[in-house]
TrEMBL record:
<dbReference type="InterPro" id="IPR037523">
    <property type="entry name" value="VOC_core"/>
</dbReference>
<dbReference type="InterPro" id="IPR029068">
    <property type="entry name" value="Glyas_Bleomycin-R_OHBP_Dase"/>
</dbReference>
<dbReference type="Pfam" id="PF00903">
    <property type="entry name" value="Glyoxalase"/>
</dbReference>
<protein>
    <submittedName>
        <fullName>VOC family protein</fullName>
    </submittedName>
</protein>
<feature type="domain" description="VOC">
    <location>
        <begin position="5"/>
        <end position="122"/>
    </location>
</feature>
<dbReference type="InterPro" id="IPR004360">
    <property type="entry name" value="Glyas_Fos-R_dOase_dom"/>
</dbReference>
Amino acid sequence: MFSETKAFSGFSVDDIEAAKRFYGETLGLRVTEEHGLLTLHIAGGTTILVYPKDNHTPATFTVLNFPVEDIEKTVDALAGRGVRFERYEGMAADERGIFRGGGPLIAWFTDPAGNVLSVLQQ
């Protein structure tokens, strides 16, 4: 039924302008805005819809993952842009905030609306 449909994902934020600055300037994504909605343009032609929601509640799970070749370099660059990395109970992270406990190396952070994002080493 949907094998030929180009699906896309979306998530809410409480402040479209803050999201536009964060995703466009801090993360360096191409962001477009139309009708009060943001579209994040991700490599490979993928798009993600970001929409305002007055009673927004941040996602308690990772809504967007960014695979990277060098997680330490990426974490350092993001930290230099003011991004703070999350630490979760029971998941020991190193001084940079990188979890090295099995599986891919991963570091979690949040957008201005509190949604969880990650960078993970390929």
